[in-house]
Amino acid sequence: MSDPQAPTRRPKHQAAPAETDPLLPGGGAEPTRTTTTTTSDRPASASSLVGSRGHPGGHVEGRHDLVLRIAAAMFAFMVMGTIQSVPGVLIPHLESYYGLSDTYVSIIFLISPVGYFLAAYMSSFIHLRFGQLGIAIIGPACQLIYAVGLCAHPPYSMVLFLSLIEAVGTGLLDGSWCAWAGAMANGNTVQGFLHGSYSIGASLGPLIAGTMISVGKTPWWSWFYVLSAFCVVMLVSSAYAFRAQDGKRYRAEKHDRNDSAIPHDKQDRFAIFRYSATWICAAYFLAYVGIESSITGWIVVYMLRARHASGYLASMCSALFNIGMAVGRLALGVVTDKLGVRLAVVIYLSTTIILQALFAMVELPAISAVLVTLIGFFLGPMFPSGVVLITRLLPPHLHVGTVSFVASTGQIGGALLPFALGAIADHVGIGAFQYIILAQLVATLFIWLCFPRLAVGVVGVSRSDEEDVMDRSHE
Length: 475
Description:
The chain is 71% helix and 1% strand. By secondary structure, it is an all-alpha fold. Strand 1 (53-54) and strand 2 form a beta hairpin.
């Protein structure tokens, strides 16, 4: 495959943009590639993430504006975490309420990638027409419709349709905010904040839902009253934080960046597919998101049936896994910046494989809960690290489309593997869960190793850009 060349590297003597610049000029959806002349491994301080900058129309964005948008994005990720983690707790109750088998209830996992692909298709249009403000309103609105609809515990076919609407909203927010944050000078740290917030929500969701259902003896749909309140707050906070980032501003900034430094494929919607890095990253997310979704989706059922844990402890295992992910994403982002993203992920995945092997061998419920927490801790940085790497290897004008595509592909894995687990559980039992996860971890490690083995030119960065990429990767 012949890959296009990245933009010509800035000469060493030319001043690089300050690291105090915000993630994007004007908060637009497309990151601006920065080149730094230092190879320092020190992560940026908080102030280096939120400098001020001028905007079209004379508006000068202050530090407060960017902090507010980052905070709103973090809260949105937290709500997304609660939404996507709770189905694992609800599966036994959905099966009982609707009279479903493991295979049939698993159809809910197949909805997410459809919504993500619809979101990826619509994202560019929404940015051009409404700017980031459009994403900040449409995404939360879709999730609010989903939550309010499930409060009425409708027929299962309607549950699936509402889940599709939710997946569109989640896909818009996930792809757009990841691309927005991924090109920051200390992208691993910022991605850690976003995805750490996701994991905090993914921890709270099973904890709240499990306590309400198992301890409070409320019906399964009572959880969605709480989720509806979260979605209202998310909609209001996102709309306020991104109120100035409308389509006019986005189009003005896009026009300002449309100079000779932008490659001719800027308007080519299919340009991302000519980069090998896009396909490798898509395969990586396909495997990784499948692991994460399978654990959150089936760990409760596995602990109940295979480890004979109590209903409360089984629900807590889902929460503990996500707590581990939250801590890992928040704590290991700086470590990843120190080690370099490629080496760090190899270490994290190798450690996780060992922990998963121990999980398969040790059957005590209490020890299993501890191991699940540690597995979550080391899996935490996997997704943000992939986003950071792909945004470093592709030209900046392709970041939104690429991140949306690979995130959508990840959702295919997040649907197929949990669905396959449900089908397998119907035939051979849920005990196969632990071995499927172990095999998937090994496959993910091999896919990740494909990144450093590729020549720089092959992954979409010209050889003249090699030193820049190495500087920015701290490798």
